[in-house]
Design brief:
Three copies of one chain form a homotrimer.
Chain A: H1 2-8, H2 26-36, E1 45-47, E2 60-65, E3 68-73, H3 79-84, E4 87-92, H4 108-121, H5 126-129, E5 131-132, E6 146-148, E7 155-165, E8 171-176, E9 185-191, E10 194-197, E11 211-215, E12 220-225, H6 230-234, E13 241-247
Parallel strand pairs in A: 1-3
Antiparallel strand pairs in A: 2-3, 2-4, 4-5, 6-7, 7-8, 7-13, 8-12, 9-10, 9-13, 11-12
């Protein structure tokens, strides 16, 4: 893909965001893309190729969402961004003039997405790259934390889930700062038979080897082992559920 | 290696092709290099360091093959390219003036190949980098599919082999589109006790979890599991054999 | 981190040194950084983020050491460099004007180190990035080979240790060329019940599958298996000890 881009726009700066999304995990890719987006320069074109439907009738698209630009398959990768920013316009990539001459059935990253992104980066308008579409983009389900009723009105319980495991074995969850009120008391994270008291400020707040829950670099609650791997210690994988309980109001 | 290149030619664009070739697997590296070559801009210098003989008497070379330029050990890495393009000229890298001052016995990528490639990229002619050679480059054996005689003249059987396993667990084979005639009927891939009917057009042609054979991004037959890993499911590694049978003519 | 840098200094060339240091292994990171430093162009800013103390009170710093520039946590990462070069001056990164607007407690690489390095690369002086410090930088213990007394005055024995395992499974040790005299005779490396005779010049000096000790690309003694993995064959990990014996003088 980088060779193809360099051949079309030698001045393009290409940055790898992530090569470690497990194959076909669109949800994990969607979250990684969403959480990195703010760190990139204005005008960046984000090319995302998690594409289990490659070669089938799934649409290939280029889209302008809020201030951002994307080239990717229409398979839900943009869902978290569509919830946060306006979909300004998008095209189906249906103009082979921008593609590699021979298009394979298994690697559209190289044959369609990369050359289209390179053409876009040379100053082409979105509308040149394909046909403007009006039917909606595909969205995937984003698991949200779910409040569970308690007989004690002062006790709050949230059913949550693990979205991803990062390089360090930290468990990235579907809980954000806004899901737990600031004045919550006696917060407890219950996962895989373990019980974590309180939300820490940083890893170093706990001793090495201990479990810790804290809000990570993406404002999401992470469950970690200090200087270790929570995924290994708890034997937990993406999709697993866990519970947070506290005393006080649920925002 | 990139630091060395940046010090000699700060304007060079460096692109990583692949860091996941298993150590010492010259055949897999040769295939990966050959299959990526078309995607890179004209004038690219390809530096390939799969180099189990580093520090021994194996030659270090720079070569012009067809429209392409290479810097690598003379150990067979260029074999598939030599079968497809003309070897125009090559030199042995025997001029320490282009090397790092201290040359280790274990990392010529950093100490010889990278600085020579950087010098070449600044406009030096190939003949400046070393002494023009006339004795042939080393070639490795490329396993080719082999037709097996059948008593039924209308039944064709091809003995094939797995060359590599990619990041997704797809099995990359030594079979290309040209090995199976377009009018072949009842094509069957037999591997590890499994039998796959027909060649699919894309992964999405089969249900998740199913085995599928299709021509991949390099025009090679690949054996895959839809949304899964064929290497894991079949417990097959590079070097393993398999069979393709069909009714009709063998081209 | 690269997105943040590109937003501040689009002309910066960013080179990845290494992403495979095991989490929290400051010693391994310190050695990798030290050994790569010579290969990079003058003026390079080295950003090193092995940062188990992120979010705690550990200092974030920028430093000029010998001819080199660094941005990193003050946790010992620079120890081998401080032993070899003069610490010219350093600052604590205490000026949020150079940081991302929202600083997380878990990813200062993105929020502090990357934007500060980018600002530095645009021509800022070190003294603008933070407050000049005079109290010393934190240093970690670097395990040194240790001579063991022998009753035979002509027999020398050195107690050594494994510092790291590289991508190939080579064992990188704390022994350098200068620890074994050139005129040493009958050198023997004793590790995990195995005994290696002599120091080889290159991997190809031994047959495939054999253990070999040689001085690697960093002038350190490495223990390898030709075309294989010494870490797997010997089941040895960083921190393990081993012994070298020879006849003659210890330098």
């Amino acid at each position: 893909m980088k060779g193809v881009i360099a051949a079309i726009n030698p001045n393009a700066t290409v940055i790898d965001l992530c090569h470690s999304i497990p194959p076909q995990q669109i949800l994990q890719a969607a979250i990684a893309l969403h959480e990195a987006i703010d760190a990139f320069p204005d005008g960046t074109i984000h090319v995302a190729v998690i594409d289990p439907g490659v070669g089938s009738r799934r649409r290939a698209i280029a889209a302008e969402i809020g201030p951002y630009r994307f080239v990717c398959p229409d398979n839900g990768l943009l869902t978290p961004l569509l919830r946060r920013f306006e979909l300004r316009r998008f095209v189906e990539l249906d103009r082979p003039q921008w593609w590699r001459k021979d298009v394979s059935r298994t690697f559209h990253g190289r044959d369609i997405f990369a050359p289209v992104a390179a053409a876009w980066s040379t100053g082409r308008d979105l509308s040149e790259l394909g046909t403007i579409q009006t039917c909606p983009l595909i969205e995937i389900s984003l698991p949200a934390p779910c409040a569970i009723a308690e007989s004690d009105p002062n006790l709050k319980r949230l059913q949550c889930s693990i979205l991803a495991v990062d390089h360090f074995g930290n468990l990235i969850t579907n809980v954000t700062r806004y899901d737990i009120p600031r004045d919550a008391e006696s917060v407890e994270v219950q996962i895989a038979g373990q019980c974590l008291s309180g939300i820490a400020d940083c890893y170093a707040d706990r001793a090495a080897g201990q479990l810790v829950a804290l809000f990570g670099s993406s404002e999401r609650l992470e469950i970690s082992v200090v200087n270790g791997s929570a995924a290994t210690k708890l034997n937990v994988a993406p999709g697993a559920g866990f519970t947070i309980v506290w005393k006080g109001q649920r925002r």
